[in-house]
Amino acid sequence: xxxxxxxxxxxxxxxxxxxxxxxxxxxxxxxxxxxPEAEGAVADQLxxxxxxxxxxxxxxxxxxxxxxxx
Amino acid sequence: MLQGVGQRLLVMxxxxxxxxxxxxxxxxxGYDVRRVASGAEGLQAVRDGGIDLVLLxxxxxxxxxxxxxxxxxxxxxxxxxxxxxxxxxxxxRVDGLDVGADxxxxxxFSLAELLARTRALLRRTGRTAAxxxxxxxSETPDVEELVVDRGxxxxxxxxxxxxxxxxxxxxxxxxxxxxxxxxxxxxxxxxVWDENWFGSTKTLDVTMGRLRQKLDDIGASGVIVxxxxxxxxxxxxxxxxxx
Lengths: 70, 243
Hints:
The structure holds two protein chains of two kinds.
Chain A: H1 2-32, H2 40-64
Chain B: E1 8-12, H1 16-28, E2 32-36, H2 39-47, E3 53-57, H3 65-74, E4 80-85, H4 90-98, E5 103-106, H5 111-124, E6 146-149, E7 154-157, E8 160-162, H6 166-176, E9 183-184, H7 185-192, H8 202-217, E10 224-227, E11 231-234, E12 239-242
């Protein structure tokens, strides 16, 4: 039981440590996409970056999902 | 378009990487934005007055964000509070709303969604600096045209008001923004729900079903068209957006 609690605390810490920089990257890309300089191919590539960031978010969510005790 | 002219936002966020792009985007929207990196500074800034909406990170270095939220309400702050958190569990969400927050966004969130929720919260808390013009009730049209008043969040058809839930209204607004054009399912999920959805869009289908039923009931059948495998569009010429 105690083991599980420690694991949960570790998962919460990992979640915070991973999601914070991920949020920063996501916001930076999305904000950059709004610059007037970000047009055409640049805008397209920024969308590609966003999709990859979302893929990474999905992976993190999956890996950090609380698992039932085995 | 500068929508937020004159409205004052306080961003309580200790991480520069998040705060910097957030401030640039909010400033570009026309909001008057101030940022603090600690709970103590934030509480003082709100006590100084004039803040319409607080964007509150739960992971502040000095005071737990939920405690900051509770304290803001104890100080009689009556503006909006939007919580931003990297914890992202259901428990946090409930806790946040329990201590007086109005809305909640899990990190990583999308800028578009944050801006949409910010606008919605400012509307809900009556903090719209330049109130959107509401249509004169006497001028409610008697033609069978759907009238969507975004400012007042009300919908009419032929003089009768349609009662919609928050999500149903938001879905309708997304479609009404570009009649005749397809709004993809992905975009709808991002704009109306959460950027962090993965996989299932069942909630969209359920909401869309209810919205259609209500439109059918009031005599506006077929206004929303499903574009198979892509998304939805609103028949052009059958809707007018105000506010």
